[in-house]
Amino acid sequence: MKYPILKLLCLALLFGSCQKEKRPNVVLIFTDDQTYKAVGALGYNQVKTPNIDQLYSEGTSFTHAYNMGSWSGAVCTASRSMLISGMSVWNANKNRKKWHVKDSLSIANTWPKLMESAGYDTYMTGKWHVDVAADDIFQNTVHIRPGMPNDAVNHPQLMKEYKEGDAMYPAMMPVGYNRPLSATDTSWNPADKGRSGFWEGGKHWSEVLKDDALSFINKASKKDKPFFMYLAFNAPHDPRQSPQKYLDMYPVEDIELPKNFRTDYDFHEEIGLGYKLRDEALAPFPRTELAVKTHLREYYALITHLDEQIGGILSELKAKGLDENTYVFFTADHGLAIGSHGLMGKQNMYDHSMRVPLLVKGPSIPKGVSLDHDVFLQDIMPSALEVAGVQNSDFVEFKSLIPLATNISKSNGLDAVYGCYLGLQRMVRKDNFKLIAYPKAKKLRLFDLKNDPNELNDLAENPDYQTKVKELFAELEKLQGHYNDELDLAFMKP
After folding, report:
1. For residues 363 and 297, is the Cβ–Cβ distance under 8 A?
2. Do 199 and 241 contact (CB within 8 A), yes or no?
């Protein structure tokens, strides 16, 4: 062969050029119930998240990212269905019925199937809780988990009686609920591996997911194809269990109460947040400082344990030389109250429950940047499609974050944020004001978010703000039409 060295050099240069043009990998690190205030890098509270903090220093974060809401008390189901389908809340609700009958077009238009169609290998582990089966749309799956770990020492019959009976819940709840009732309440130990829950199977579920991710990365690193990994932790959802050393980091006496802590919430029955909603039954009614501090302690401990697993995943990407050509998205499906406004769960329109951490790190993304644009967390789906070179289909209603992150777009994000919960709550957030509607209670609430970020001072009946109430109510009705929301609020019009 003539000029063999020259030929080899040309091939090497060609190979190097192809390598540079190789499509980037995409990794979603997805947590459950993690409010935007539960990241140390954001400076909101006491939680220790060194690995997530490092990720924030390496990418661009969106400080005002929201879940749109839910048609179900299981808010995570709606959030994840929107993320997988690319559809807004009420359209996703209709679309999921097609998944039940295995409609081929609906399944083909899911996020992982679109990535696969573009030549990506797809991997999934962890929490699913979506109506289409994970192994029907991902090529590689392992340890597909339910919506939450089984209640520790759960009693199905007691839960049945609890849901169907009229009596108040304490006498009927399984271990882990309605607690602690006093400083000497020892009914629950988050580090007790005999309680099942996150310990089911012998190894903590967050550690299992980390191990699965390392296995995925090792497998993918040996192939030429780009990959998409959907890594969905169940943590920090309850039952909030973690090894003792993480609990020891957070003495209950050192835990600070939320600034909007309340012992109860007015209209909690009218808005679907009463004694019989599972999330709200975790702590006693009325809320006590001890109970809220105890639940926050367990929440923080589980997040710090989760953070350590995330660190292991990020380290492995780097060790395999994959991090430079990988986009990492980090977010949660929704937030959580844990004592704020006298609530415990995510089924409400306050920022602590609708707003989540959201970060993107990748080859084209500025480092250490924080943006306050209003966005939906489901914007991650079209963002991933964009960097993967997948044409954005007409059915995808969310917008890519990449133009915002790279300053290509001069937009300020969403013009207004829409929120919903069943037929019981509606919300619009615009220009640093939020209007909440409770149709069953016939009540409107207005908050000035710039001057009252903890949403404590209701201005809805203040004469000086009636023009703002009317403006936002009109905006809410407009958004209802845009998102195919059929709830009639005309009788509440101010």
Report:
1. no
2. yes
d(CA 64, CA 49): 19
* CA nearest neighbour of 206 among 237, 175, 227: 237
Rounded Cα distance between 234 and 194, Å, is 19
H helix or E strand, kind and range, residue 112: helix 111-117
Contact by Cβ (8 Å): 346, 279: yes
Contact 250, 306 (CB under 8 A): no
Ranges assigned E (strand) in 241-382: 326-332, 355-356, 358-361, 369-376
The residue written with tokens 């009636």 in the block is 466
Q: What are phi and psi of 69, to 5 degrees?
A: 135, -155
pLDDT values of the chain reduced to their tens digit, one per residue, 494 residues = 343 443 334 333 333 333 446 899 999 999 999 999 999 998 776 899 999 999 999 999 999 999 999 999 999 999 999 999 999 999 999 998 888 878 888 898 999 999 999 999 999 999 998 999 999 999 999 999 988 887 544 444 444 444 443 344 444 456 788 899 999 988 889 999 988 889 999 999 999 999 999 999 999 999 999 999 999 999 999 999 999 999 999 999 999 999 999 999 999 999 999 888 889 989 999 999 999 999 999 999 999 999 999 999 999 999 999 999 999 999 999 999 999 999 999 999 999 999 999 999 999 999 999 999 999 999 999 999 999 999 867 889 999 999 999 988 777 789 999 999 999 999 999 999 999 999 999 999 999 999 999 999 999 999 999 999 999 999 999 999 999 999 999 999 99
Q: What DSSP line would sit under 173-222, residue for residue?
A: PPTTSS--SSTT--S--TT-GGG-GGGTTSS-HHHHHHHHHHHHHHHHHT
d(C-alpha 418, C-alpha 305), whole Å: 33
**Alpha carbon separation from 65 to 32, 324, 340, 355, 430 (Å, rounded):** 15, 25, 19, 6, 13
**φ, ψ of residue 429 in degrees (nearest 5):** -125, 125
In this structure, the chain runs to a length of 494
Tokens of 115: 């990535």
Neighbouring residues of 3: CB distance < 8 A, sequence distance ≥ 6: none
- Please give the structure tokens belonging to residue 373: 């644009």
Q: Is the pTM of this model over 0.85?
A: yes
